[in-house]
Amino acid sequence: MERRTFIRITSLGSLSIGFLSSNSFLLSSCHKMGMNETMSGSYIDIIEGDFTNSFINPATITNNGALEAQKTNCQIFPGKTSKVYSYKANAILGPIIVMNSGEQAIINVQNNLDEPTNIHWHGLVIPSNMDGHPMNIISAGSSYTYNFQVNQRASLYWYHPHPDGATASQVFRGLAGGIVVRDAEENALNLPSGTLEIPLIIQDKRIFPDYSIDYSPQMNEIMTGYLGQYALVNGKYAPNLNVETTTYRFRVLNGSNARVYNLALSTNESFTIIGSDGGLLSSPETTNSILLGPGERLDLLIDFSNQIVGTELFLVSKTFSNAGIQGAQEFKIVKFTVDQQSTLAYTIPGSLSVISSIPESISIKTRKFEIGNMSMGMGSGGMGGHTINGVSFDATVINETVQSGTTEIWEFDNSMGQELHPMHIHGIQFQVLNRVGGRNTLIASEKGWKDTVMVLPNEKVRVIMTFGSNLGVFMLHCHNLEHEDDGMMLQFEII
Ligand code: C2O
Ligand code: CU
Ligand code: CU
Questions:
Q1: Which of 92, 235, 276, 417 is 20 to 30 A from 253, comparing alpha carbons?
Q2: Which bound ligand lies closest to the C-alpha atom of 429?
């Protein structure tokens, strides 16, 4: 077996060449590189900072706004300039679009990159021609106005580019942003708001010694997904957020290409999950840790009221298992410094919303999606051979046809797989029915509406959904963006 070298950037500016260690992920498969070559993936450690960088809230725009995809400079590290892609000058990430359910979003997108791009509105249930299909692009120098009505539950959704084969590179370089949709039901709950409602967009980035973003995946990183060595929150590395002794609402998005976080507090204290991808859960779920895969969102309440002023604690990612090469490292993500006594008392509502379970009995069909096998290579469009049901993305092929108004169960089968796959369906919110193998259970955030679900090695996950009235072609894919660009994506048409 050949040992492949990899480069690990141990700290800013210093490179060290290492060899794959025994805990590296090894996958023997036949693929384009040749029958005998062994594919290897390597874990990139997160380097913890000193958490002196100040926390920033992304800018916001309304439902009537403009985004400009561009190359720009910004400060990810204090006092250092990084070259990034962004939807906003001198920033990484785009503004958060804040709007009410029922409103029309009219967003002009100017492409000032030197490559095609487009925008997909992740989690929104909108017409297919507005959904950012990979072949539906805005060429360099042009602009396009997306125009659609948002008619769904309050939640944190997000937007990012989706051009064929370049989604991973554009997102990693900085193109992404949040969408906060509000509605009357959520407003009536009087959840912590204003300075107590804080977006946390978590992304890992790999950075060149000159501080610009390094997106240069090797073959083994197409297998495992591209990891960075710096964990950023809202585009800042190792930030500190000053908090008061009261309850905060954190709107969390894992906008990473491939990295999974097992979110917890460094004190091991519990926190409360009130929502996930598609909005509020029916009732609050208290937990000490929660796994969040690429593309997924969480609505969290953290109560600092028992902390003593002066206390410092962290949101961390705890170790986790059965997730391919990931999970062996615990690392800090953001520091909370309790700097002020608050007189604001807050009681978490006992019930949040009504979620009626879609009964399995109304499903007219179960479709199985095999996601655990690597393809034999030669026929696939991708480099690493990631497929769904043995086929990779082909824009000329509609893989599945479904009927508007009907309900189906889709089963993602990773029982034979060695990699984790966050599976995402466009144009719909689904419910997770069950998970067999691996963790063998649903996690708290999976009790609500979802658009992305993690399928770890050995797991088989079933989801149920009713197709809406937006007819046309939508995507089903793995939200490990290297896997997606490698072809782990199918098209389905609602007729
Ligand atoms: Cu956020 Cu098709 O993806
Ligand atoms: Cu999506
Ligand atoms: Cu995948």
A1: 417
A2: 2
